[in-house]
Amino acid sequence: MTDRPSRTLLAGGYRNEVWKVRAGGRWLIEKRYSEEPGDPNPMYPNLPDHEAAALQLLGPRGLAPELVSHEPGVVTYRYVPGAMWRRGTAAVATLLGDVHALPPLRSLRELCGSAAEAVAHGDTMVHAVPARMAAGLLTLRPRSPSSQLVRRRSLVHTDCGPGNLVRSARGLVLIDWQCPGRGDAVEDIACFLSPAMMILYQMAPHSPAACDEFLASYPDRSTVRRYHRDAAAWHYRIGGYCVWRAHRLARSQPVIAERYHRALVAEMAYLEGLA
């Protein structure tokens, strides 16, 4: 009988190397950060120090993996056995509500704090691609997004798609905290409900009933009301990211670029439904 390997490179790490490591009688995840050549990612930067800080706060509460160690460019945390989330949006709403209720860490980057800032951020990505690629999305750009800043900033994951939700024996756990920040909890709600994000994780978009279930289950009703008011701004921003990625990857990774294009089309359809 051969021994099981004590160090395995996991699939799914798009920019960073993610290793499953056996050490001290337990399984750990060792994330080795690297950066893509060229301009930094405008939505999902690589921030190992921020991931370590978030895990240190959330791990003991069971909301994220527990931090084991952190050194420059490497974050190690406890492996969470379980399966990727696939159904049951109410449980995700409860998990995100628990995360957003915590005082945000002041050491984290500051995110968009209003619908107007979200649209402006989307514009920077839209204007970085050829006009023909973003023409359809620009017809759906919110005309008068609210400039009212969120009163209370929250700890925001920013990439809470299904691939970063693990259904463990203790319940749902949110993993991959490589780019958290202090901002509006609506950003995470828009990310989870986004049809584009579901497609990027190679899953079907949420049904209207699943979206309604999530919004009915999210504990902070003022945040839900703000999502209903500002949803178009945040989903336009996601569309801007999709078109930016589709353009950037068109030559080097055409298959992935096409997935981003399909995600853009789905996000635009969602935006049309919000109008």
Show the helix and strand layout.
Layout: E1 7-9, E2 17-23, E3 26-32, H1 48-58, E4 67-71, E5 74-78, E6 83-84, H2 89-101, H3 115-126, H4 131-138, E7 154-156, E8 165-168, E9 171-174, E10 181-183, H5 186-193, H6 195-200, H7 208-217, H8 221-249, H9 254-274
Antiparallel strand pairs: 1-2, 2-3, 3-5, 4-5, 6-8, 7-10, 8-9
Protein architecture, described:
This protein has 275 residues and is α+β, with helices and mostly antiparallel strands. The chain has a single domain (82-274), classed as Alpha-Beta Complex (Aminoglycoside 3'-phosphotransferase, Chain: A, domain 2). Helices cover 43% and strands 16% of the residues. The protein contains nine helices and ten strands. It has a five-stranded antiparallel β-sheet with strand order 1-2-3-5-4. A hairpin with a 7-residue loop joins strand 1 (7-9) and strand 2. Helix 2 (89-101) runs parallel beside helix 7 (208-217) and helix 5 packs across helix 8. The termini are far apart.
Keywords for this entry:
Aminoglycoside 3'-phosphotransferase, Chain: A, domain 2, three-stranded antiparallel sheet, alpha+beta, 275 residues, 9 helices
